[in-house]
Amino acid sequence: MAEPMTSLESGVQSHLLSAVLNPEQVRLDVWNRLREEMSRLEARYSEGQVSSDERVAQLLSLFAEVHPIERLFVFPGEARLLRLAEMARRHDVEELAEEVRRLVGLLSRHRDRACLVSEVD
Fold this sequence. Notes:
- By secondary structure, the protein is mainly alpha-helical.
- It has one domain (8-116).
- 73% of the residues lie in helices and 0% in strands.
- It contains five helices and no strands.
- It has helices spanning 7-21, 23-46, 53-70, 78-90, 93-110.
- The radius of gyration is 16 Å and the shape is globular.
């Protein structure tokens, strides 16, 4: 008889199943988390606090999480993801936050068709 799953195992299994059944939603969830993290970082930056290496590491881990998913889609594309990660490494907080907000808005409204929208670049 199989042992019951722990809540963590159940959560991981649910996440994996949802990624298979609805990768666009998982993708948008990750982008929304990235946007939220950017908002927190931007607030700290505007208050004069120096962005910490830990916060940048969190952003880079989110970029790393979204990267394999993004290979399935046209927009925003590999080159743009690399530019965003480079902005995070350089601590270009304001520009990065603005770009992430713009991309999330485009992805929310147009999904992968955002590459066809004239306001993209």
